[in-house]
Amino acid sequence: MRKALIVGIDHYEHIPRLRGCVADAYSVGAMLERNANGTVNFVRPRLISGSDPSHLVTRKELKDAVRELFAPKADIALFYFAGHGYIEDTGGFLCSGESTDGDDGLSLNELMTIARASPATNKVIILDSCHGGIAGDRASLKGFAEIVTGMTILTASTADQYAMEKQGANPGGVCSQVS
């Protein structure tokens, strides 16, 4: 069994809105559903999108969906996030739609803890956000990585970089600075 959770957030209540994350999420979802020869790859990847105020992606919804993705035994559990990322001295965060300053989103430490504990054979985390490169680092222990056997992390930026939103680029390039 292959499971995928694809999240794209354009609408934020308190921080700058984005324009391409939801479209990127739909593109990634469509790409994952079928292999190039038309055979099924991921059966119905779960897609969560925050495109407007009526579709606000909350921290609770995001964390619950991540837990659900990584809970069962699976050949592959794939998580894709396109939206704002945030970093501070306690680590990195994925901003949810109701985030006010970034550090109130889903902590990358929480994401890594949930993924590490997963019985899935292969755990894939793709972060199309600012500062995604901090995923797997533990803020309190410099030089210590939390990546385990069977885990792959792909990011659009290093811990210190911003991922820029570029119109016409699909998928890719997400973030403007969260202040």
Automatic annotation (TrEMBL):
Whether Magnesium counts among this entry's keywords is no
- Give the top-level enzyme category: hydrolase
Descriptive protein name: Caspase family protein
Q: Name one GO molecular function term.
A: hydrolase activity
Q: Which UniProt keywords apply?
A: Hydrolase
Q: Which domain of life is it from?
A: Bacteria
Q: List, for all copies, the residue spans of the domain called Peptidase C14 caspase.
A: 1-168
Annotated InterPro entries: Caspase-like_dom_sf (IPR029030), Caspase-related_regulators (IPR052039), Pept_C14_caspase (IPR011600)
Return the EC number: 3.4.22.-
* Matches recorded under PANTHER family: MUCOSA ASSOCIATED LYMPHOID TISSUE LYMPHOMA TRANSLOCATION PROTEIN 1/PARACASPASE, MUCOSA-ASSOCIATED LYMPHOID TISSUE LYMPHOMA TRANSLOCATION PROTEIN 1
